[in-house]
Automatic annotation (TrEMBL):
Listed InterPro entries: Cupin_2, RmlC-like_jellyroll, RmlC_Cupin_sf
Residue stretches making up the Cupin type-2 domain: 38-95
Disordered: region residues: 87-121
Protein's name according to its UniProt entry: Cupin domain-containing protein
Length: 121
């Protein structure tokens, strides 16, 4: 077994789309999806941009304010996630800072548990 500490991954700052206080660290990739550790400093923003594929943002600590194409802002706390569809313009802000994980690609969000893990039968 290998244990990963997301804080220890090499992160690089991102300033595209007017982003600020935003850094990413990749920790997994497959033919179908990317797994990305993200951090937003207090007051940080991931600027409005279209999702390259289906995208899930899971807040691990802190909080985020997210908006999709319609512009309605939703508040997320640790343990909550937002999902954007391919091409959907979206943005994320964090007044107090957050760390999280983005999973991006060919995802089946909300699949029943037995489809994800059929168990030992």
């Amino acid at each position: 077994m290998k244990v990963l500490d997301l804080a220890d991954l090499p992160h690089r700052p991102i300033d595209a789309h007017g982003s600020r206080g935003f850094a990413v660290g990749a920790f997994g990739i497959s033919a179908d999806a990317h797994l990305i550790a993200v951090s937003l400093a207090p007051g940080g923003t991931i600027g409005r941009h279209p999702a390259a594929g289906r995208q899930l943002l899971l807040v691990l600590s802190g909080e985020a304010e997210v908006a999709g194409a319609e512009g309605d802002v939703r508040h997320l706390t640790a343990g909550q996630a937002a999902v954007w569809e391919p091409g959907e313009v979206h943005e994320t802000r964090s007044p107090r800072g957050m760390s999280g994980m983005i999973v991006e690609g060919d995802l089946d969000i909300g699949a029943p548990g037995e489809q994800v893990d059929p168990g030992d039968t």
